[in-house]
Amino acid sequence: MKPISGFSRACIAAFGALALVSAASAGSKFTGDGHVKINRNADGTGLAIAYLGMVYNGDGTKEYLGCQKSGKDQVFCHARTESEDRVTCTASSSYLALSVASISPDSRLIFTFNAKGVCTGISVQHSSEYEDKQ
Amino acid sequence: MNSRSIKCLASRLAATAAFATMVAMPLVSAAGPRYGEPNVSIFTDSTGAGYAMGTLGGTRDSADLIQRLSCLVSRNETTSSSGAKTRTASVTCSARDTARKTVSCTTTSDAMANALSGVSNDSLLEFHFDAAGKCTDVIVYESTSLERKS
Question: pTM, whole model, 2 decimals?
């Protein structure tokens, strides 16, 4: 049987379901360690990762992680852990700038860097399991 | 965006507007109208192809501990000694509904990755996949009617 389409589902949802959503505080949640982490390899490459909402809402006082892009596609990312390990990277890349544009306050953000401090990758994950900044 | 996506998105806009004016407004005093199906819905045919949809806020705020909805976009760029750039994108989306049915898909399509650039903390996500688990379309919807994450 052909599955009901998104079109039909949306109509059913809108017209049929008087679903006035209650903001219960359940729902599957990510319960792992959302702190800033920096992993370095022997060749100087590495990555930094954090859950932006969890870090913001957490009890850390030193850690942060963020990325920016400019109108000239200059990308900059930096991170600091609670133990004050730091890393920064830069890139001139319209491609990586696209990823910076997709970051939201509740994202899981990872950036990778090479031994020269050049940003080589940016991963952004959006999930219902990640908490928002409060 | 293909015609089906446009149709789906347009239908959602129309449905939300109609919902606001015809149904919800008289019943809600201190809030705007809300999209009626915020939780994860998964549909597959006999081949395993299908689609999943839900809102990030509504799924997180749902009354169970089972549902989840997620999309990951990764972009990598390396430059060779000659200056040549190699770019790769990857997209992975996954969903689990209240019946614990789980689906996921992946793609290396730049177009799919770009489509997810507009995702925010409370977006509605819909992703389509074929029988091999390849993402064939991704739709992002934003509206006043979508609830925020609690």
Answer: 0.79
